[in-house]
Amino acid sequence: MKKFFALAMALAMTASLAACGSSGSSASSGSSASSGSSASSSAQTVPTGVEDGVLTVAMECAYAPYNWSQPDDSNGAVPIKDSNEYANGYDVMMAQKLCQANGWQLEVVRLEWDSLIPAVQSGTVDAVIAGQSMTAERAEQVDFAGPYLYASIICLTKGDSAFADAKGLSDLAGGTCTSQLGTIWYDTCLPQVQGAQIQTAAESAPAMLMALETGSVDFVCTDMPTAQGALVAYPDFKLLDFSGSGDDFQVSNEDVNIGISVMKGNTALKDALNSVLSTMTADDFNALMKQAVAVQPIGG
Questions:
Q1: Whole-model pTM?
Q2: What digits encode the pLDDT tens for the residues 189-198?
Q3: What are the structural domains, with CATH classification, of the chain?
Q4: Which of 17, 63, 84, 291 has the smallest count of CB within 10 Å of its CB?
């Protein structure tokens, strides 16, 4: 695994040289057994993971317009490691900006959604840039840089559906629905629809959209960027945005703030990413997402 053994050795060295300290911080001032200055100088920091000049980023490569796979390098796509395909989308475009600003090369690894956080935790990859909400539950497992996007929650239905004229959540009562497995859309939002017949969660965003296209469900819950991309691939879909209606999903900032996950304690990498993201505005994010939607392959 990339840099895993180097990371383990560095952490082991930290433990032996500064038993009273913690990785990424100075030794505890409460230790009186040794000189404070000596303990402080012994403290080590968690390696960034990009000491080799390569930022290894994981994503699904199947979650347009955040990320997708394609057969060539058109529109600035980058190779997917250990494959003959290329990755593109908002996440790739953002990763390229972050790498350019920090003088890194970009390496993209394709992983299933449920494998993303474990890959960061193990050191297999340096970061996940994959449309992840910055939830408190995830923040217990990883550290987050960002946000790098703000994504409001909406629904999609078919244009000829009985729910096509819905003006609020109450108008969706009794409908069959689903969303992607392991998302706040499925776990937090759909249960807010009174009387909703929530079906089994879809394994991926494309599977979720196919459930709607084939009529398996009446509507799906997702975020605005995913919906915008879906409308390109499925022009028979209709977007239901209940914001400002007073009858909308109740979500917190952690649900709609989209962040970049890094290993716990990897403050140096998080700060390097934030040094770039902090110079960007919501308008900058939306403009980049518009570019991604414009080059998204049909059905991508």
A1: 0.76
A2: 999 999 999 9
A3: 4-42 (no CATH), 54-149+256-295 (3.40.190.10), 153-242 (3.40.190.10)
A4: 84
